[in-house]
Amino acid sequence: MKKNDEIELEIIDNGINLEGIAREENKVVFIPGAIKGEKVRARIIKVNNSFCIGKVEEILTPSPDRVEPFCSVYKRCGGCCGQHISYNKQLEIKKELVKNTLDKQKVNYAGIDDVIGMGVPLNFRNKAQYPVRKTVEGVSKIGFYAKRSHDIIENEECFIQDQEIDRLSKEVFKLLLLKGFEGYDEKENKGDIRHILIRRGYHTGEIMVVIVVNNKNIFDDVRMEEIIHILKEDDNIKTIVLNYNGSKTNEILGKEEKVIYGDGYITDYIGDKRYYISSKSFFQVNTIQAEVLYDTLKEKLNLKGNETLFDLYSGVGSIGIYLSDNVKQVYGIEIEPQAVDMANMNMRLNNVTNAEYIAGSVEEKIEEYEKRNIHPDVIVVDPPRKGLDLDSIEYIIKFAPEKIGYVSCSPATFARDLKMLEPYYNIGVVTPVDLFPNSEHIEDVVVLTKKK
Ligand SMILES: C[S@@+](CC[C@H](N)C(=O)[O-])C[C@H]1O[C@@H](n2cnc3c(N)ncnc32)[C@H](O)[C@@H]1O
């Protein structure tokens, strides 16, 4: 097989990015856009020692699960990768992927549920962060990055974003251009506006606008006053924040911020708990499914009311506060200080008096509880994609709680970490919850119980 060869391939599986997988000449061929069971004619666009990448030229035998993508820029845009697959099939594939990952690591778990999907898997994202870029022709554009590049794909309507967020992001963009601001030039590290980030409370409708700028002088630019004046006409816009990011980096937000309108946060509900959310604090992007996720965790934990619970990687305290009525005491650790401020405010907002949140990394701060002689009955972990680090796992094992609730956004690190906890804990039934329809991502929740 060499580059530009056109070959007929049987798709034998779907991979972690929902791409089709075939085998040819003892090599794995990854074919984005193909579905298990299909026969395709593909052109080889990349050849590596162990694998190749193919591009679908023609679908010879379509899968019964193939559907027409609902978005006109789907093929080019990097925002979604599953729109060509029926939603039920996406859920089936995601379940298979989680199961295969656990089985590959030889994790001994009690079973896996079907993925809990969304009723209507559209317009669910409560947060959009659109790059704003200046092209070589000098035109400023807003959109998603194209697949595997930083070219901007403009789109009239994005069907995964909250519709109001989608509309407003374009309005803010136009307003910024009208006032003479320009998009960011990534190559030269020049220009004014890097990203427009908008959050909207699903239940409250409250909106936060964050404009990420490449030049700190914009913090005091009078044109921003004019922009505030126009935007605040919309009663739902509760706060506007300028964030400065001057580094050559893929990270969206920089460290420094200036709140130019409102308090710097909005609120939203998950179930009956209300949460303050700021620009830098993590909050699940799919509010409806976050509630399903937290309820699944709650049900699996089967709390009695007398437990001491650690909420590790706690964000704005969402899980700990959600469970606070069902336990004696909550202790949370979160690395982002702004999120910890929100967690403390969220306790007051919900009249929660049995929780305490501290700022710092889990690996460094967890020993404080040992020093304070605090022993957890339950530890809930909800780490970022890189999963738990070894120090934290050792501490969790040392604390020996009766139960561990593990919420994960990465099947690979989830399986790795469960394997390390397995000698000490029985691993229950894994429940995948789909918070990210039409993408490759999936959340998993499981409860581990201490071996006798
Ligand atoms: C997946 S989010 C979960 C947040 C929260 N549990 C929720 O449901 O909204 C992971 C959180 O871990 C935080 N984080 C990342 N690395 C950390 C570390 N080493 N120690 C503590 N928190 C960390 C991130 O800032 C983020 O808020």
What does this structure look like?
The structure is a single chain. This protein is of the alpha/beta class. The protein has 3 domains: 61 residues, Beta Barrel (OB fold (Dihydrolipoamide Acetyltransferase, E2P)), CATH 2.40.50.140; 195 residues, Vaccinia Virus protein VP39 (Rossmann fold); 143 residues, OB fold (Dihydrolipoamide Acetyltransferase, E2P) (Beta Barrel), CATH 2.40.50. The protein is 24% helix and 31% strand. The chain is built from 9 helices and 24 strands. The strands form 5 sheets. It has an 8-stranded mixed β-sheet, sandwiched between helices. Helix 1 runs parallel beside helix 9 and helix 7 packs parallel to helix 8. The model has no long low-confidence stretch (mean pLDDT 96). The structure holds S-adenosylmethionine. The site of S-adenosylmethionine has 20 residues, from helix 5, strand 19 and helix 7.
**Strand composition percent:** 25-35%
Quickly count the helices: 9
**Helix/strand-derived class?**
alpha/beta
The CATH architecture of the largest domain can be named as: 3-Layer(aba) Sandwich
Enter the CATH topology name of the largest domain.
Rossmann fold
- What is the fourth-level CATH superfamily of the largest domain? Vaccinia Virus protein VP39
Compounds present? S-adenosylmethionine
Read across the widest sheet, the strand sequence of neighbours is 7-23-24-22-21-18-19-20
Most strands sheet? 8 strands, mixed
